[in-house]
Amino acid sequence: MEQFIREKIKKVKKGDQSAFEDVVSFFQSKIYQHCYRMLGNAHEAEDIAQEAFIRAYVNIHSFDEKRKFSTWLYRIATNLTIDRIRKRKPDYYLDAEIKGTEGLNMYSQMADEGRLPGEEVESMELQRYIHQEISELPPKYRSVIMLRYLEEFSLQEISDILDIPLGTVKTRIHRGREALRKRLRHV
Amino acid sequence: MECNHEASSLMHKYLDGDISNEEEKKLRLHLEDCEACQKHFRELKRTITLLQSTEHIEAPANFTANVMNRLPTEKKRMKYGRWFKAHPIITAAALFLIFMMSGVFSAWNQDSELVVSKQDNLVIEGDTVIVPEDVTVEGDLVVKNGNLVIKGTINGNVTLINGKLIENPIESEGLMASAGGVNGELKHVDQIFEWVWYNLKNLFRSIFAF
Ligand SMILES: [Zn+2]
């Protein structure tokens, strides 16, 4: 798959816009999910995820082909989400209810569709709970925890994506794990 | 071993795959004796399992199409270029047709006036264009419906359409043979087909240049 993406990027660099469509299609759910988990709501997630792909396209010539494209793309997306979080009005940011409600709506909507036996509804509740706990972590812990356990990057790759030293990644992962341990231990 | 700090630091090292054999042994020995740390370690591992069990979300429908619509428009040059490359014969045929319709052929027949591409210091005598001895023309020179005498120098290509190059009289006598010259290509266009071809090439050049 790396090779497939590499070929497409070469074409995009030569100005072939249609090759970029395959790149977007391949990464769309990963990047959308990353933005959704970082921002906590679907509307902003779609907006920022789209923006990330557009930035990648416009700046494709600054992408070093010796590196991994996914790392570069996640970096753009992460920076955009962090920018967006900073620009939020303080009351929006502190209002955990908004995030909670978003998640609740999404999951209860799915549960309402009536196809789900009790056990799955329960697991949905658990999912909702876990996501809410992640979303309440400060962004710098949230991003490393997500990249490590939801998106399965190595510590070194996370260091590349966030452009922070490996030691800092480890410290944040340790603290993020401890914070979540305390929040999830009663589950 | 101190429970709060050292043991938990070893646990995290273990979870990151950073632990040495010796440290691992130390951690295991401690866990055998310390229930609080056992619990702590179990909780950490369970937290990771819970995180990894979360479902993945899909991007909304039409996500890719929406991104593609928001991209800055591709440079026209690339779009046309790609199309022309894919359809060379159609392109040539279409351009030929355009020329027929835009009157290139009639221009060939009707237009017999002397035309010289704009250059300074050229002398025109009747239907003959002369590049004087002490003149150096910078750039390409096109002469249509006239003859050309080169005594000076042309730093560029020369195109003669429906006319000919008159050898420099001095040169033909064998004197000052190096006095006049063209530092570029010299092209004669005398046939109607060449005339069309010449225009086609120019059009191609102007299309691919913008
Ligand atoms: Zn202990």
Fold blueprint:
The complex is a heterodimer of chains A (187) and B (210).
Chain A: H1 2-13, H2 17-39, H3 42-58, H4 69-87, H5 90-94, H6 96-112, H7 118-135, H8 139-150, H9 155-162, H10 166-184
Helix pairs in contact in A: 1-2, 2-3, 2-4, 3-4, 4-9, 6-7, 8-10, 9-10
Chain B: H1 3-15, H2 21-33, H3 35-52, H4 63-70, H5 76-86, H6 88-101, H7 104-110, E1 115-116, E2 123-125, E3 128-131, E4 136-138, E5 141-144, E6 147-150, E7 153-155, E8 158-161, E9 165-166, H8 169-172, E10 181-182, E11 186-189, H9 192-209
Parallel strand pairs in B: 3-6, 4-7, 5-8, 6-9, 7-10, 8-11
Antiparallel strand pairs in B: 1-5, 2-3
Helix pairs in contact in B: 1-2, 1-3
Task: Please provide a written account of the structure.
Chain A is an all-alpha fold. Chain A contains ten helices and no strands. In chain A, helix 1 (2-13) crosses helix 2 (17-39) and helix 4 crosses helix 9 (155-162). The longest helix of chain A is centred in the first third of the chain and has 23 residues, at 17-39. Mean pLDDT of chain A is 85; it is low at 93-115. Chain B is built from nine helices and eleven strands. The relative contact order of chain B is 0.08. Mean pLDDT of chain B is 78; it is low at 169-179. The A-B interface holds A 15-17, 20-21, 24-25, 28-29, 31-33, 36, 42, 46, 49-50, 53-54, 57-58, 126-127, 130-131, 134, 145, 149-150, 155, 170, 173-174, 177-178, 180-181, 184-185, 187 and B 8-9, 12, 15-16, 18, 40, 43-44, 46-48, 50-52, 54-60, 63-64, 66-68, 70-72, 74-75, 78, 82. Zinc ion binds next to helix 1 and helix 3 of chain B.
Level of helix content of chain B?
40-55%
- First and last CA, distance of chain A: 37 Å
Q: Please count the beta strands of chain B (DSSP E, at least 2 residues each).
A: 11
Ligand names: zinc ion
Radius of gyration of chain A: 18 Å
Roughly what is the average pLDDT of chain A, rounded to an integer?
Answer: 85
Query: Alpha-carbon distance between the termini of chain B?
Result: 74 Å
Overall geometry of chain A comes to globular
| Rg of chain B, Å, rounded | 40 Å
Biggest interface: A-B, 40 and 34 residues
Low-pLDDT windows of residues of chain B = 169-179
What percentage of the residues of chain B does DSSP assign to strands (E)? 15-25%
